[in-house]
Amino acid sequence: MVRLKTEDASSHNGMAARGACIMVIFLVVWMGTAGCVVNEPTPKDSSKVQPITVAVTILPQKQFVERIGGENVRVIVLVPPGASPHTHEPTPGQMAEVSTAALYFKVGSGIEFERAWMDKISGVNPGMPIIDSSEGVALIQGGDEEDAAEGPPEQDQIGLDPHIWLSPRNAKVMVEHTFEGLVGIDPGNETQYRANKEQYLKELDALDADISKALSEKVERRIMVYHPAWTYLARDYNLTQIPVELEGKEPTPKGLESLIRQAKESNITVVFASPEFSTKSAEVVAQEIDGKVVLVSSLSEDYLENMRKVATAFAQE
Ligand SMILES: [Zn+2]
Q1: N or C end of the chain, less CB within 10 A?
Q2: For residue 80, how far is its CA from the centre of ligand 1 (angstroms)?
Q3: Ligand 1 centre and the CA of 163: distance in Å?
Q4: Cα–ligand 1 centroid distance for 92 (angstroms)
Q5: From ligand 1's centre to the CA of 204, what distance in Å?
Q6: Do 205 and 115 fall into the same domain?
Q7: Please, which residues bridge with residue 106 across strands?
Q8: Does 170 or 10 have the greater pLDDT score?
Q9: What is the CATH number of the domain that holds 125?
Q10: Distance, CA 166 to ligand 1 centroid (Å)?
């Protein structure tokens, strides 16, 4: 009897379990379907449909914002591909676009585009928070000395080298600001942004280690570059850059002579130029030393990949 009861019970339980199982499947399917319809207008899903518009100055910052914000952000870049943050002027279309942004990440560090245009940008979008990504970066003096002479002495960030993003150690600071800025306007997604940030920081650490390794075996520590964008990279990885261009100007004939002499003394055979800038005087120097011009970008959108390419190019010279 006991055995029979047990069989009955187990068989009953089995049926109940199957029944429950079917019910659960039905409920999941039904809820899933209903969920799609009912949940669509809630704020969480509508944020996926309408990403937050975030404005940045240069292309490498786009990767920082996209890697942390994911699908929640749409990034507009004020200095477009091929343009220079030292000379670019925003178009009326760009001003209209930035007027709709919810947040702006400045490079900071006194880059000319921001010094010239930030007031006008905040003028068309007065409520937009502007985050300075350079806060906490140890800035290097010796950017554009011509501007330093012109500017009022109390105005800081003048005479600083603005190219902070070109060292992964500075990029990590910029990424922290990116995270804090995004959380500031979208605190509901903090957990997700934090996880994304931690992952990206790990990749920047790996990049840092790879660059250290690539450059550690380099014997000649001097590199000749057309535009002196690599000041922070040179500081962090113990290199010296010899710029062809100085203060935004082509070298004088005497300056060219001196560059050619320095290159010969250091057995330099490559002049690194940027696709964003003229290479004319870089070509002249390269010809005189029987060397060549190699293009390395300081403004590429794929920051991680580009920095690896740059380090490899510098290591090979
Ligand atoms: Zn530059």
Answers
A1: N
A2: 14
A3: 6
A4: 24
A5: 22
A6: yes
A7: 132
A8: 170
A9: 3.40.50.1980
A10: 10
- 137 C-alpha vs ligand 1 centroid, how far in Å? 17
| Residue 83: pLDDT over 60 | yes
Six token digits for residue 117: 């245009």
- Asked if residue 153 and residue 126 are part of one domain, the reply reads yes
Element (H, E) at 286: helix 280-288
User: Which band of pLDDT confidence, cut at 50, 70 and 90, is reported for residue 159?
Assistant: confident
Q: How far is the CA of 31 from the centre of ligand 1 (A)?
A: 55
- What is the per-residue DSSP string for 127-150? T--EEETTTTS---B-S-HHHHHH
3-class SS at 175? helix
Judgement on whether residues 92 and 239 belong to the same structural domain of the protein: no
CA–CA distance, 83 with 89 (Å, rounded to integer): 9
Do the beta carbons of residue 281 and residue 236 sit within 8 Å?
no
Q: What is the pLDDT of residue 275?
A: 86
**Domain total for the chain?**
3
* Average pLDDT of every residue of the chain: 85
Domain of residue 162 covers 46-211
The residue with tokens 């960030």 is: 157
How many A from CA of 167 to the centre of ligand 1?
A: 13
CA–centroid distance, 79 to ligand 1, in Å, is 12
Which residues in 45-189 belong to E strands, given as ranges? 52-56, 73-77, 103-106, 130-132
Q: Which residue is associated with the tokens 């990749």?
A: 203
| One domain for residues 193 and 56 | yes
pLDDT digits (tens, 9 = 90+) for 178-235: 999 999 999 999 999 999 999 999 999 999 999 999 999 899 999 999 999 999 999 9
Q: What pLDDT was estimated at residue 13? A: 44
DSSP 98: H
Residue 135 CA: distances (Å) to CA of 21, 26, 73, 138, 164: 57, 55, 23, 9, 11
More confident of the two residues 42 and 296: 296
Distance 277 CA to ligand 1 centre (A): 9
Phi, psi of 249 (to 5 degrees): -120, 150
